[in-house]
Fold:
Amino acid sequence: MPAARDIMTPGAECVGAEESVLDAARKLTRLGVGAVPICGTDDRLKGVLTDRDIVVKVLGQGKDPAQTKAGELAQGEAVTIGADDGAEEILATMSRHQVRRLPVIDGHRLVGMVALADVARALPDSKVGDLLEVLSTD
Structure:
């Protein structure tokens, strides 16, 4: 089975924890992605910000995206996968944490992102089907 570094999308960019959600939304648009990792001033991963987070946690609650910091939306410890972790670990981590995207780290450095679509392209249909079933149940 392939490792995370073999199936990830390389070159993921962070949004700074102190950057506004508006700036994060512009970054999502520029990159053409639905999620971006949140990094602190120490270059450590703080979480992942999704387009849904912006809609539900900022706009839906009447907050100003220009005044809300991306770091305010980081919840708990960031769920990540190591660059050398295998596909089985990717599946297990996505299932356990009910996430569709995982930042890939090498040491403490962000090197890419693995999305459900990356997993679907790299693994047998039965494994992907099992993951989709887990992610689709509440």
User: Anything to note?
Assistant: The chain has one domain: 4-136. The chain is about 40% helix and 20% strand.
